Amino acid sequence: MNSIRARAQDALFERLGNRLFDANLGEDQLRAHVVQELDQILSTDLEQLTSEERLGLVESISADILGLGPIEPFLADPAVTEVMVNGDDSIFVERAGRLYMTDARFVSVQHLRQVIEKIVSAVGRRIDESSPMVDARLPDGSRVNAVIPPLAVDGPMLTIRKFAKTAFGTDDLIEFGTLNKQSVEFLDACVRGKRNILISGGTGTGKTTLLNVVSSFIPTDERIVTIEDAVELRLHQRHVIRLEARPANIEGKGHVPIRDLVRNSLRMRPDRIVVGEVRGGEALDMLQAMNTGHEGSISTLHANTPRDALARLETMVLMAGLDLPIRAIREQIASALDVVIHLSRMRDGTRRVTEIAEVNGMEGETITLSTLYDFDYGAGFDESGRFAGEIKPTGLRPMFSEELQHLGIELPEALLSAGLDPFKKNGFAQ
pTM for this one? Predict the structure, then answer.
């Protein structure tokens, strides 16, 4: 049966070719073409297959061809958070922060290429030998990265970071242990008080998820402009303008980078600018926006610690191509940013906020940071092997407390005092 299936699928690709991805064909028309061709292809196997087997094979191959092949069940499984395809015969998935190899396989390299092309073409992107890597997204917002030869030496590679069907909220992150009520109340006050926030962390630590949650604290009467490489943010405020960068077309024209979108957003009268991730010269434009009346802006970047995040930001500003003195860049960073939130993926597979730091300013040539909340590694592990600790206040009060007070936002002493639970002592809502 497997050999018949593989032969039928290869023959179908050969017969239909690019018609499988013809945008002018409706889904019903395409399905009719696929079923018709499969009937003809399988007509030579009438003696080997019963009518039921043949019908089942046609349905199964149709689902593979018209859908996303063997990875379709993993995308439908809510327990799977990431799907990694390392060639046509190797598929891994991530569950609860850990990687598992599956028995699923693509029929051929051609089948995998067709699935990749189907995904990227649906969002107006392309992938071929002249442009062999691409970032895209699925209809549900899941992030897709694909790389093909000659860059991928061992065949096409596909990575899909899934989005939950419903966006996670603060209660979910508290339940996962990413944050606790104390830190959520503090971050809520920072956002309402228009502090400029940078979220840092490694790959897959949950920066975009946290950015979604932190952005949900923005008041509903403010105008928000979001800027992303591929749209992932899910904000539920009434007044949200979503901008997405655009790659160059097949002629190498039409490229619109994030930096251009950040500049353009300043002309759109935003109350807040939310940049999905800063990766290059747009860092300078973002800092200038924060320093010129667009307080309360939020962004993410890849870094190992809050201190590393500032160093990376400094490097990215230099990528803007302007000959700026290092001290001037550091002064811009120190003046623009108020809070750095750092996420880590722990060895137990969980994602935790491990530090919340305030950017104090400059001392000589150095940007100074104060750790306001820190993860309690000393609490050890629970019975299931998970870290038992949580993020706790260090006892330091942020320098911007008085500014928040002028805006009518209080930071109770218990919210910042180590060892106290403000939700039991000061009447905070449970």
Answer: 0.79
